[in-house]
Amino acid sequence: MKYSFTSTALAALSLSGSASAFWRMPCRGRTALERVDPIVDPGKISGHAHTVQGSGAFKESVTFDELRASNCTSCQVTQDKSAYWVPSLHFQYTNGTTVLVNQDGGMLAYYLLYGDDPKPFPPGFRMLAGDPFQRNFTGLPVPDPPKPWTGGNVTQEALRLKAVGFNCLHYSVNPPEGTLYRHFMPDKDFLDENCSDGLRLELMFPSCWNGKDLDSEDHKSHMAYPDQVITGDCPSGYDTRVVSLLYEVIWNTQAFKGVDGQFVLSNGDPTGHGYHGDFITGWDEDFLQSAINTCTSESGEIQDCPLFNIQSEADTQLCKAEVPEALANDNCEGPSDGLCGGVQVQYGPAYATMGSSNSSASTTSAPSYTGSTPLVPTLSYQTSLESFASDKYGGGITIEAVSGVTPAPSAPTPVTTEIVGTTTFTSAGAVYEVAIEEVDVYVTEIATATAAAKHKRHYQHHRLNRREHGLLAQ
């Protein structure tokens, strides 16, 4: 069953210079799955496993020049020798045994060109987002209040917590959830019942830079979030806007439907609040500046940028980092007795200790799954946000409907497009001129549908995404 919906598409032109151009960097291959983190644990073995995309030079301690010198990348644009990594997702059976959940389609790294004049990452630039020790959503409303946010919702701590997303994917039933809509891991029963196409983990990186430091002691303090997480104004002292970076990774949680156990991140987190990610630029700075200036399509497709050299998905699978000798016997894929590296499962809500299973257990930890589930808020599957999947792996940035403009009830009507008027509105200090374009769409499953009809529906799906992206995003 395909989903049916009627939507009002809003195409907006900002009078303040806000951009809607972007590109999605597909990194289909996995360069490594190992306990290595050259930002947090340089030169040594990391405490927990990461799934790594990008440059084949990835290792315990790596420089910008080494990333650039690699003869391969697991991303499709060969000029991108950056390193991208996040904790892997595992399934833990009731006896404590863990296995890696299959990672569908590698990673999508979104390069969003927000701000009046976004800058490229300079050589040596690195940063991380999220906190692997976090185990609760401290004092913030659930779900997020309507934007624009103010007060306690725009502190850097609040924005960091809101920069994590767990998107339940169900392409054939219900409208899709919005990016960064849910900031925690849904429980197993919810995933089984609602998320037939898996779980998309999302992470937004801060895009406001202090303009001088390539890194900082905590790998965060040289960066800050704009006041609406993705868009908005930068705080004082962080006036340089760099290109905005967002990660998406889809995990096939449905492979474990009906199986007793729980999902847990490699850092021992079953709540999702401790999701995090790291980035080291591997772009030539001048080339990235040219891409920012030139790759201004609103489609997000790398094929629409004439600068990019694009390799096949098959070739991205061939790029592998060298496994450190100390990790030769690691079994992060499983089946294994517990998580890779002996990491404890810690439910919180207290701040985690990240100790191994051989160290003194925290009062908030459980060495194996006991049948209990983390205490997390409940959010319904339906949302007020609209999203259109941007490629076959289900990637997509969401567009928030303008207050007072909501989708009409589902109805089996023909596809129609009509400009019904224009208006203006103000958001976060920016004045927008809006063309309101009414688009009525229905997609239902028909047993005798021809391949040509299915192809037509697929094209309309992507055309809507290109029209809407970025104009009222987040």
Number of domains: 1
Say how many strands there are. 24
Low-confidence stretches: 1-18, 357-378, 380-391, 398-474
Order of helices and strands: EEEEHEEEEEHEHEEEEEEEHHEEEEEEEH
The secondary-structure class comes to alpha+beta
Percent strand equals 25-35%
Q: N-to-C terminal Cα separation, in Å?
A: 29 Å
Helix content: 10-25%
Largest sheet: 5 strands, antiparallel
Report mean pLDDT, rounded to a whole number: 78
What does the radius of gyration come to? 22 Å
Query: How is the largest sheet built, in terms of strand order?
Result: 2-8-15-11-10
Estimate the global geometry from the Cα principal axes: globular
Number of helices: 6
Signal peptide: 1-21
Domain DUF1996: 37-283
Protein name: DUF1996 domain-containing protein
InterPro entries: DUF1996 (IPR018535)
Account of the protein in words:
The chain is of the alpha+beta class and 474 residues long. The chain contains six helices and 24 strands. It has helices at residues 64-69, 156-162, 188-194, 285-294, 313-316, 451-468; strands at residues 5-14, 22-27, 32-34, 50-54, 83-87, 89-93, 97-100, 103-112, 126-130, 164-168, 199-204, 208-209, 223-224, 240-241, 244-251, 261-265, 276-280, 336-337, 345-346, 365-366, 385-387, 398-400, 416-427, 430-441. Strand 6 (89-93) and strand 7 form a beta hairpin. The chain is globular, with a radius of gyration of 22 Å. Residues 1-21 form the signal peptide. This is DUF1996 domain-containing protein. It comes from Phyllosticta capitalensis. Residues 37-283 form the DUF1996 domain.
